[in-house]
Amino acid sequence: MSTEIPLSERIEAILLIVDEPLGLVALAAAVGSPVPAVRQTLETLVDDYDGNGTGPRRGFELREVGGGWRLYVREELDPLVAAFVGGQAPARLSQAALETLAVIAYKQPVTRSQVASIRAVNVDSVVRTLLARGLITELFADSETGAINYGTTDALLQHLGINSLDELPPISPLLDDGADGFDEGTIR
Question: How far apart are CA 62 and CA 43, in angstroms?
Answer without folding.
Answer: 9
